[in-house]
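Progress note, sequence design subtask.
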């Protein structure tokens, strides 16, 4: 869990841009995916307990994603693909 919020589209776009810039990501509404369970139109995780327990603010989610991708061996292979 990281600070800030984003849509699944924003997350996917940031993820793909970090690995293969220039690939088009097409946004879809949840209603277009025919999930069996209803999804709320807007929901985010509450990270206030993290700050309460650690005394530190949660880093931005983009920083967490970058850190994960830096440790993932396959990320370098995907970046190298032409």
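Output:
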């Amino acid at each position: 869990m990281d600070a800030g919020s984003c849509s699944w589209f924003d997350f996917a776009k940031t993820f793909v841009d970090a690995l293969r810039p220039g690939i088009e990501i097409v946004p879809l509404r949840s209603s277009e995916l025919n999930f069996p369970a209803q999804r709320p139109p807007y929901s985010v995780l509450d990270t206030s307990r993290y700050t309460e327990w650690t005394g530190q603010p949660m880093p931005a989610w983009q920083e967490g994603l970058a850190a994960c991708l830096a440790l993932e061996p396959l990320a370098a292979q995907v970046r190298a693909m032409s």
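The helical segments are 8-19, 48-54, 61-71, 73-80. Work on this subtask will continue into the next period as scheduled.
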